[in-house]
Specification:
The structure holds two protein chains of two kinds. By secondary structure, chain A is mainly β. Chain A is about 0% helix and about 55% strand. Classes of the chains: A mainly beta, B mainly beta.
Chain lengths: ~120, ~110
Amino acid sequence: KQEVTQIPAALSVPEGENLVLNCSFTDSAIYNLQWFRQDPGKGLTSLLLIQSSQREQTSGRLNASLDKSSGRSTLYIAASQPGDSATYLCAVRPGGTGTASKLTFGTGTRLQVTL
Amino acid sequence: NAGVTQTPKFQVLKTGQSMTLQCAQDMNHNSMYWYRQDPGMGLRLIYYSASEGTTDKGEVPNGYNVSRLNKREFSLRLESAAPSQTSVYFCASSEFWGLGNGYTFGSGTRLTVV
């Protein structure tokens, strides 16, 4: 059974700092990995999607990397801003189709960026 | 804006009442899903519909029923609400079984059962 862990569970950084959020998964046979952002009381917003054949994806100040063989992904946020404060979730989609291909979510990292 | 729309956004029910949560997507996705999110439990899959005309149980289906009304709409029904069903419910959609460009989530329905 796929297990997805995110470390740290919570993180507080001053504005302007670069930071890294970690996501690890136990089964490397994945199809893709998706990073989401969730603001308090809101839904999930997709940030980046990395296919299993890719090593990284970038969007603005965000960069996500994937190392399938070691079961790790990182989300790098450059020059953090107070507006980046949210919970960040990673989700892994296994290979194949059918019920075995359901998403497995990590436990999330709650980020606070202070002034 | 293209995406997943859920209604209602908030709901309070009394134990034993019934209600239907509505979800519609306009991205021509084949697969749709219902999740619930609880503190300390993360997101758990309730039911899913891989394609129009099919539905199946996820991890926590007890107390719920679903209907895939057409390709766009996927509803979740609570027949007799219980306090344990107090949660935030999210609908999501994707290309067939999450192939392609990943999942898109709605903004959620916050349900309280008293």
